[in-house]
Amino acid sequence: MIIQRYISREVLASLGGVILVLMLIFLSNRFVRFLSQAVSGEVHSDIIFELLSLKMLTYFSIMLPLSLFLGILLALGRMYRDNEVVALAASGVGNKQILKIILSLGLVLAVVEGAFSLYITPWSEEKGYQLQEEAQARSDMTGIRAGQFNEGTSGEKIYFVERLNPLANTMENIFVDGKQQGRNGIISSAEGEQRTNKETGDRFMVLKNGYRYEGEPGQPEFRITKFSEYAFRIEEHEVKQIRRKRDALSTAALWNSTDKRDIGQLQWRLSLPVSIILLAALAVPLSRTTPRQGKYSKLFTGIVLYIVYMNLLGMGQAWVEKDKIPAFVGMWWVHLLMLGVVYYMMRERQTRLMTIFSFHNIKNIFRPGK
Questions:
Q1: In 181-288, at which residue ranges do the beta strands (DSSP E only) sit?
Q2: Cα separation of 42 and 120, whole Å?
Q3: Hey, which end of the chain has fewer CB within 10 Å, N or C?
Q4: Contact by Cβ (8 Å): 127, 54
């Protein structure tokens, strides 16, 4: 029991480090993309961090199999380097016991992965679409692109903004052509921002240091008004549904569907917890190193095997969606192939150890003085 806790703790510590690094890389890349989309008007700046939090759930589901695989390789690799595995073997904890400990941990994480891939990830993807729809509905300014003329959602205003700052929610050098208080007019402003009334929840476009031109040039009623602040209410509009990807469909909807693309998506979700167990089993024989090799010596081989495995799963999913193979075959042949690789590596390692031990026995028999 003590050995089991020790090995599990070592693996989980390595897993945590790997998944933290991967999460930072993926989230920083996604954050930059969200900022770019906010500048171009494709995503509302108010919901960037909410969308990023939801994406974190999706990335966790994708990264967990790889993180566990690399975590086992790093943890056992270090134990081989420090001769801890040899000490465990001398204490009666052999390769089979280590494999059982790793598979027990893998089964627990496979349940976690199943919960994420089948339920939490689809929910987070759907929630992200809903947030974007609600943001577009409540703001007439959604969709504005810097350096271009943009039509408001209601079609009553034309906007031009030279520069946008989505994080600060501010704009510079603004031009607005539209009707205000029943009269046509043109507004030019050096800067502006969006504000929300905390009591009513209404949103306002506040322009600063600008001019308002009303009427027809050359007519007596033409007026020019200078202002330090000019605000107008941003109307809410009907929610327009964004086209969903299959990642956002619920598992129940995929299960009841006969569409080949839905079947392929369902099998992908089911494959992720299965891959947890197979990769955990593969990491045990693959992690065997000598003290001279170091704990990182098998990482390259492990990453290559992981890439091949995931690419084969992607190829299997594509074949199911294109109806090139029967649905009952689906992606399961890839898992069977990986199971064969695991079995081969286990047998090869066992045969190699038996050969080494037999060689030492023969030397002891014929050694002088024995």
A1: 183-196, 203-214, 223-234
A2: 25
A3: N
A4: yes
For residues 179 and 169, the answer to whether their CB atoms sit within 8 Å is no
Q: How far apart are CA 85 and CA 349, in angstroms?
A: 15
Q: Which residues of the chain have pLDDT under 70?
A: 39-42, 135-156, 166-169, 179-183, 201, 216-220, 234-242, 290-297, 348-370
pLDDT at 136: 66
Alpha helices in 139-241 (DSSP H): none
Q: Write down the residue that tokens 């839905």 correspond to.
A: 262
* Distance separating alpha carbons of residues 242 and 300, to the nearest angstrom: 41
Cα radius of gyration rounded to whole Å, the chain: 31
Q: Cα–Cα–Cα angle for 64, 69, 73, nearest 5°?
A: 145
> Per residue, what are the HEC states of 292-339?
CCCCCCCHHHHHHHHHHHHHHHHHHHHHHHCCCCCCCCCCHHHHHHHH
Q: Residue for token digits 């306002």?
A: 204
